[in-house]
Amino acid sequence: MDRRAAARRPLSAPEPGLFGPASITWRLDREAFLLLGAGPRALLMQIAHPAVAAGVADHSNFRADPWTRLAATLRSYLRIVYGTTDQARAEVHRLNRLHGGVQGVVPGGGAYHGRDPALALWVHATLVDSTLTTAHAWLRPLDRQDRARAYEESVPIGRLFGIAADRLPADLAAFEDYMTSMLADDGPVQPGRTAKDLAAAILSPPAGPALRTILGSMTDLIPTRLLGPAESLGDRVPAAATAWLLWPSIGLLPPRLREAYGLPWSPLERAVAAWLVASWRAWNAVLPPFVREMPQARAADRRIASTMP
Question: Cα–Cα distance between 270 and 276 in angstroms, integer?
Answer without folding.
Answer: 10
